[in-house]
Amino acid sequence: MRTFYLLPIFLISFTTLKSQNHLQYKNIDVGFGGFSVMLKNHEIENESGGLTFNINNEFVINKNLISLNFISGGGAGSGYVSVGGDFSFYKVDALYGREFVATKWLSFDANAGIGYYHQKGKLYFTDYEFRESTINFPIKISMIFLSNNRVGFGFNANYDINKLNNTFAGNLFLRINILKN
Q1: Pick from 103, 95, 101, 65: which is nearest to 179 by CA?
Q2: What is the pLDDT along the chain (181 residues), one digit of tens a residue?
Q3: Between vectors from CA 55 to CA 133 and to CA 106, what angle results, nearest 5°?
Q4: Which pTM value belongs to this model?
């Protein structure tokens, strides 16, 4: 909950930079994919997985990328496979990164930052449930294929390091460029 107090600070900072013409809105990515997580610190340790939804807003200051990234994942029956259950999570991240242009139609983004991570789960046929939140240290790498100056598609790999469990999510996404190259 304490992490949500930081959100207004980030928004005020972005608004201030935008008003000084330093910050430019670069693109928005929307995608779907899957995740894998090794659940620990619960009644049963087990690997879980499922589907994800991803929205990433990217801004640029000079050649530096600033991103606000949201990923949500889960599904019924996705966790505790051997005994039955479900697991879901969402995360909101503020990321810093750089873009590496390989060719006119191919580029790569590398990002790292800090965020908020929330997970919940339930074992079927028992009354065991959990809800937990923590600070998250995300790493994200994206490969982008540009079909033209406005639209592209790609793949991003997201790895989250936190005290609850480490999560990997891979997403295919559609990119809409706002800032002309």
Answers
A1: 65
A2: 444 555 555 555 555 555 555 789 999 999 999 998 877 655 555 677 889 999 999 999 988 999 999 999 987 654 444 456 778 899 999 999 999 999 989 999 999 999 999 998 877 777 778 899 999 999 999 999 988 888 999 999 999 999 888 899 999 999 999 876 5
A3: 125
A4: 0.80
